[in-house]
Amino acid sequence: MGAVTDDEVIRKRLLIDGDGAGDDRKINLLLKSFTKWCNSPGTPEEGFTQYQRMLGTLAQCEFSMGKTLMVYDMNLREMENYEKIYTDIEQNITSAHEKITECKKEIQRAKRIRKNRQEYDALAKVIQQHPDRHETLKQLEALDKELQQLSRIKENVDAKLELRKKQFHVLLSTIQELQQTLDNDEKSDNDDNNMGSPAGNDE
Length: 203
Prior knowledge:
Number of strands: 0
Low-confidence stretches: none
Oligomer: single chain
Structural class: mainly alpha
Strand content: under 5%
Order of helices and strands: HHHH
């Protein structure tokens, strides 16, 4: 036979002792009384009285044993209930961890969305500071017209400048010719004067 475990010893003791009211002592007394009754040379009346006492003691022990079994069964149910509660708590803890992880992911997504929204708002403000495409095209058309007008003005100015250069060249040529003519006239006058001077001296 295998060794009796502590749980089995305690369980048997509880079955015998009940709620700790000394039922094991009652059983010991009952055994002693039964042995004494079997070996007693007393009268039948004394034996019957002793027999009734033993039945009463035995009934008390049976009652205590039944009560102990009820308590034991109740404890088993309580243990099962506690195990179920423990399992539920573990499941709730696991579920709470999963929810916390999911909430962290949601927070990260919300932060990313908020960052993207802030960047979008900043970009939208930059875009609003610039004219739209239609306005830009109008400005480009106006600049093109202005450029064409400036080109025409430049051509006119270049043409006038070229004309002035030609006129200035003609003027310089005229002045040079006039100067040459004046120089020639002055030389001729000098020559005439030189030729006339000896004749006057001879007179």
